[in-house]
């Protein structure tokens, strides 16, 4: 209604951008997804920040709580498995051993479990604004990495206090183990977060899956026990093919000085090579996971 | 501004090409259901086409109003344009920065403070931290949140939510603003503020797509209207015409519902039917039936109620003119005019004459009724007809005038 709008004639804004197809029936190329995420990196940072801050917003102790769980686990495993079941007798520095394994394990399990729920948890946003949806599982990864860093600092302090500060070339295993867990965890989180939208059972399934993987990796028992029991059979090779096992072993090799120096401990041959292969496989899995995710994400807004 | 003028800048900012959207409705959700009825799977799902073959070009600087009934697909179309859902077939093309205001408080985290949420929301809309710092004070100022900006958002009222969300959206410097019905939540001064902001955006040449149920709001700001009905575009272009198309759709539904109601009430009315209202005729001064073409302001109208008295009763009769939204614009009855109605059985024509009608509403619905002297309804005739009035060329509202204006310079009073 012209007569009610006596404004000056509109000045034309300049948008130097061609018309671009949006959405495009669900699936985008991996490359365009990556560039989109890079464009939104500031938002990603804010979402990670939000995740961390919101989690401890109303608690007095705040971020200290992210330490309580692994510390409680440490005490339980140290007492029950180390002392009562006697695992500590054959494992030097059992406390550091367990905490090393727990630290890398909780990185993986937190990426997987909070990543799986991330799309559902952000349903409100997904239904209202367009964002590259990969950003939500990635924000969960960021939150998990933050917790990992806090735990890792505690681990470092513990090694200093006990005079076992690991300063050796074995430290190179550390970044490899972390990257391996982040890549693999992200791949799993991407697929499961998308599937979880359509089939909510996944959330419950994942708890069981994580429990099995926890005991299938040498976190609270030494891999030496496995070697003694399986005597290098093909089952042991299967056990050692598990990337989580490899990452835990790599982490122990880097941080658990007493074990590395103890000749009675068993270490698989070519641990570094095994980890690199696992990393390669995980990278392929991550690529495939992104394809699956981008195929499924088109219908998120209406399924949530 | 109207369509022909804005057509000068032919740069499209949104291009919807033959887009359709299908929703699949599953009736079974649990695994048990899926296994049990695996064979009849096809039966347990039904398709619903929310949009069918929509093609739409929106040029830069236009303000487009999407209107339609509930469930006509306007919000779905807006979500398609926003990229929130993908079309089942066809394509949606777009360029520039978009800010979408769909439902309330998109992306607010209840446990975080207003300030933290502003930064997150601005990042979602594509603003960097440095850019947000620059406009932060303006956002707080515009939203009127004041000191509550440091309070957790979960303690906000729904009005505060919307105000903050709208404030962030309009300060994110969008090329395209998508607004879905959210403004209805704010109080009147805030709605006014939003409308002013939208007009400012228009002057700055930004593009706005607005979904609204309020025909007045659309008529007020939009330069173009698209009317959707059952997922299809039934009108695209002039705003006034669009609103008329929409209202015709409303009236069709209303008349159908009223007819149904009348049919069921008929039996009961026969018993109490001491008086029947048969029809209401409206004629202009020259005796022609009004309603064929819009009535010019200043015409004189005669309303004739045709009533039949079946048994002797003391009664009064009159008519009402209502807007499309059911608001009574005018009513008149025999009691007001102190006319004595005959009580003996027979057919009567009761005429009322209104000189110089100057209704500003484009369409009014006529209803007539009869009551006893104590106000008990005897007969009613809802939707006896409608009248179209010529639109006001100068002002707007419920009535219209042959208005004039003048501008004089006056001495400054110090």
From TrEMBL, chain A:
It comes from the Bacteria. InterPro entries: ABC2_TM, ABC2_TM_bact-type, ABC_2_transport. Residues 61-296 form the ABC transmembrane type-2 domain. PROSITE patterns: ABC_TM2. Its main location: membrane. It is a multi-pass membrane protein. The keyword Transmembrane helix applies. It is found in: Cell inner membrane; Cell membrane. The keyword Membrane applies. The chain crosses the membrane at residues 67-87, 94-115, 135-162, 174-199, 205-226, 271-289. Keywords: Antibiotic resistance, Cell inner membrane, Cell membrane, Membrane, Transmembrane, Transmembrane helix, Transport. Belongs to the ABC-2 integral membrane protein family. This is Transport permease protein. It comes from Conyzicola nivalis.
Automatic annotation (TrEMBL), chain B:
Keywords: ATP-binding, Nucleotide-binding, Transport. Residues 36-255 form the ABC transporter domain. The keyword Cell inner membrane does not apply. One of its GO terms (molecular function) is ATP binding. It comes from the Bacteria. Transmembrane segments: none annotated. Gene3D superfamilies: abc- transporter (atp binding component) like domain (2.70.50.60), P-loop containing nucleotide triphosphate hydrolases (3.40.50.300). The keyword Hydrolase does not apply. Pfam families: ABC_tran. Belongs to the ABC transporter superfamily. This is ABC-2 type transport system ATP-binding protein.
């Amino acid at each position: 209604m012209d007569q009610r709008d006596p404004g000056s004639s509109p000045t034309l804004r300049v948008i130097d951008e061609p018309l671009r197809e949006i959405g495009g029936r669900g699936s985008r190329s991996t490359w365009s997804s990556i560039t989109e995420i890079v464009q939104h990196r500031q938002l990603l940072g804010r979402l990670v920040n939000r995740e961390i801050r919101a989690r401890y917003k109303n608690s007095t102790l705040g971020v200290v709580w992210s330490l309580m769980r692994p510390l409680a686990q440490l005490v339980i495993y140290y007492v029950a498995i180390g002392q009562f079941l006697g695992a500590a007798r054959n494992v030097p520095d059992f406390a550091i051993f367990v905490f090393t394994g727990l630290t890398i394990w909780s990185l993986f399990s937190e990426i997987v479990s909070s990543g799986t729920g991330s799309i559902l948890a952000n349903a409100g946003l997904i239904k209202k604004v367009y964002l590259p949806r990969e950003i939500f599982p990635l924000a969960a990864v960021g939150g998990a990495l933050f917790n990992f860093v806090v735990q890792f600092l505690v681990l470092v302090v513990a090694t200093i206090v006990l005079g076992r500060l690991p300063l050796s070339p074995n430290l190179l295993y550390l970044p490899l183990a972390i990257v391996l867990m982040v890549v693999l965890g992200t791949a799993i989180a991407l697929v499961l977060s998308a599937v979880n939208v359509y089939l909510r059972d996944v959330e419950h399934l994942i708890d069981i899956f994580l429990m099995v993987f926890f005991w299938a990796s040498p976190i609270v028992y030494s891999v030496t026990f496995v070697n003694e029991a399986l005597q290098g059979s093909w089952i042991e090779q299967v056990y050692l093919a598990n990337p989580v096992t490899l990452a835990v072993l790599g982490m122990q090799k880097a941080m658990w000085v007493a074990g590395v120096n103890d000749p009675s401990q068993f270490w698989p041959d070519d641990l570094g090579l095994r980890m690199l292969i696992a990393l390669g496989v995980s990278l392929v899995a991550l690529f495939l996971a992104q394809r699956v995710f981008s195929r499924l994400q088109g219908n998120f807004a209406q399924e949530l | 501004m109207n369509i022909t003028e804005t057509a000068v800048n032919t740069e499209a900012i949104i291009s919807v090409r033959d887009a359709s959207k299908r929703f699949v409705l599953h009736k079974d959700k649990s695994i048990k259901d899926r296994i049990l009825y695996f064979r009849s799977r096809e039966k347990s799902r039904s398709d619903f086409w929310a949009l069918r073959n929509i093609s739409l070009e929106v040029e830069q600087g236009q303000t487009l109003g999407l209107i339609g009934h509930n469930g006509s697909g306007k919000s779905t179309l807006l979500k398609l344009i926003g990229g929130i859902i993908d079309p089942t077939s066809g394509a949606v093309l777009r360029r520039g920065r978009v800010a979408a205001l769909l439902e309330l408080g998109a992306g607010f985290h209840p446990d975080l403070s207003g300030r933290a949420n502003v930064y997150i929301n601005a990042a979602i809309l594509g603003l960097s931290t440095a850019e947000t710092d620059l406009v932060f004070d303006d956002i707080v100022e515009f939203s009127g949140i004041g000191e509550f900006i440091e309070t957790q958002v979960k303690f906000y009222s729904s009005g505060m939510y919307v105000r903050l969300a709208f404030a962030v959206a309009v300060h994110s410097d969008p090329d395209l603003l998508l607004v879905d019905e959210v403004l209805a939540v704010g109080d009147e001064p805030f709605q006014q503020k939003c409308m002013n902001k939208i007009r400012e955006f228009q002057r700055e040449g930004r593009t706005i797509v607005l979904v609204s149920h309020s025909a007045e709001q659309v008529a007020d700001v939009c330069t173009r209207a698209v009317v959707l009905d059952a997922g299809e575009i039934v009108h695209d272009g002039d705003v006034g015409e669009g609103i008329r198309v929409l209202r015709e759709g409303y009236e069709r539904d209303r008349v159908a519902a009223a007819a149904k109601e009348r049919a069921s009430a008929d039996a009961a009315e026969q018993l109490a039917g001491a008086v029947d209202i048969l029809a209401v005729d409206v004629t202009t001064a020259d005796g022609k039936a009004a309603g064929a073409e819009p009535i010019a302001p200043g015409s004189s109208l005669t309303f004739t109620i045709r009533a039949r008295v079946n048994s002797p009763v003391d009664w009064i009769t009159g008519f009402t003119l209502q807007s499309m939204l059911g608001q009574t614009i005018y009513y008149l009855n025999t009691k007001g005019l102190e006319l004595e109605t005959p009580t003996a059985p027979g057919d009567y024509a009761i005429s009322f004459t209104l000189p110089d009608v100057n209704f500003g509403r484009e369409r009014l619905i006529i209803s007539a009724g009869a009551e006893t002297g104590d106000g008990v309804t005897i007969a009613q005739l809802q939707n006896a007809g409608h009248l179209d009035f010529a639109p006001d060329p100068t002002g707007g509202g419920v009535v219209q005038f042959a208005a004039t204006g003048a501008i004089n310079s006056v001495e400054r009073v110090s």
